[in-house]
Write a structure and sequence with these properties.
7 helices, two-stranded antiparallel sheet, 37% helix, 257 residues
Length: 257
Amino acid sequence: MTLTPDRARLDGRVALVTGAAAGIGEASALALAAFGADVAVCDRDEDGLAATAAALVSAGARGVSEVLDVRDDEAPRAFVARAHAELGRLDILVNNAGGGFLAPFLDVSAKGQDALVRENFTSAATFIRAVAPHLGKGGSIVNITSIEAHRAGPGYAVYSAMKAALANLTKSLALELGDRGIRVNCVAPDVIPTPGIGPMPVRTPLVRPGHVDDVAGAVVFLAGDLAAFVTGTTVHVDGGNHAAGGWHRGDDGRFTT
């Protein structure tokens, strides 16, 4: 295999991105389109999703968009069927939708816990079950997790647990779907300011916060042929925070715990 720049291209492929109205989802959808893919997008934020869909059209991509709640049981499956019917195929799934709220575990109600489980784990499983039958050899599933999938999440215990569950599911599905030529990987961001999070303190070994395009770059890599032998793993897009563990660079440039 000879590596050439065109192997980074996604021409002729169709991606589906959840939670695409803003932040990482929007950036990933636009990056996939910039590299040649047509893109189906969904989100419950109607105005934000409309803006993403318009940007995809401006980028020259064919697209399908639908306002839906990924926590529903039927809406995701119906959207996948519609996207496949209108765009003719599906090659890439980016499970980006998710979210959490700050609360001690003992204060989270059963209803709140169920919402967190559905949004951060069940929805991804639902989309995978719906999309996987349409994926052929070279298909790619990219699950957006978090650095909290790999460390404790005080105040976000259920969210953290569900991201860890998604990371583990990713490994299992990499084995189960490997003989079909389908790759399954994660991207685990940290310190990525988004509209839902706002500004974040700069506490990374790279001494800068991340950007949604940093995550989108990893998504594009995992979606295409440059990652043809990459499956069952996590790409950490966190400025080195996962590697740092509890170490932080002080104002004097020295690392302390």
